[in-house]
Amino acid sequence: MPPAAPRSPRPTPAARPEPGAWRGAGSGHADPFAVDPIRRSAALVAVAAAALLAPLVVDGGDAAAATLAGGSLGLVGLALGLPVLALSLLEAGWDRLRRRLDPEVDLLDVPPRLARLLRRHGYASIALVERTPDPALLLLPNLDPRALREVRRAIARWRYERWQAAGFP
User: Fold this and answer.
1) CA distance readout (Å), 166 to 72, 160, 161, 163
2) Which UniProt keywords are given for this protein, alphabetically ordered (predicted)?
3) Residue 41 above 70 pLDDT?
């Protein structure tokens, strides 16, 4: 009988499961609040509040047991959901305020390719694009003089529309 080949105690890299494979075909990460955190945390808070308050409505001998079971789950849901909801609302408010004070290039009437190009290279606000000299913007890859003229024209048109909306002050 020929000798058996030595076996490695560790599985080969091909046999190892992918990191995060237990999550299934979802979003690729285990954070349930990563996508639409306001809606998801508000739903969690609503369900947790219902689980906490529903046993108080029920009368009878099982009300105490229902309060212990539902109330504990409700408190856990509130403890997890309320901070996420508060932070998500603060973040959304901050983003809205920042966009109002410093509008982004998405508001310009330019092709999406140009807006993505400017954002990718750190020119997210209209004011920053306006302050940057033309030679510096022309150094960006895929931004030719025609596209730069289009961006400058869109900024001038955006400023004029805001001036008109303000009543020609």
Assistant:
1) 54, 10, 9, 5
2) Membrane, Transmembrane, Transmembrane helix
3) yes
Classify domain 105-164 at the CATH class level: mainly alpha
Q: Is the pTM of this model over 0.70?
A: no
- The CA-to-CA distance between both ends of the chain, in Å, stands at 98
Alpha helix segments (H runs only) across the chain? 37-57, 63-101, 112-120, 126-131, 134-138, 145-165
User: Which residues, 6 or more positions from 115, have their beta carbon under 8 angstroms from its beta carbon?
Assistant: 105, 106, 108
Task: Give burial (CB, 10 Å; 0-12/13-18/19+) of 118.
Answer: buried
Which amino acid is present at 32?
A: P
Question: What's the pLDDT at 57?
Answer: 78
Each residue of 44-101: pLDDT tens digit?
Answer: 999 999 988 887 777 667 777 777 888 888 999 999 999 999 999 999 999 999 988 9
11 vs 126, which has greater pLDDT? 126
14 pLDDT band, cuts 50/70/90, is low
AA letter at 73: L
Give the residue extent of every domain in the chain. 36-101, 105-164
Residues 46 and 81: beta-carbon distance below 8 Å: no
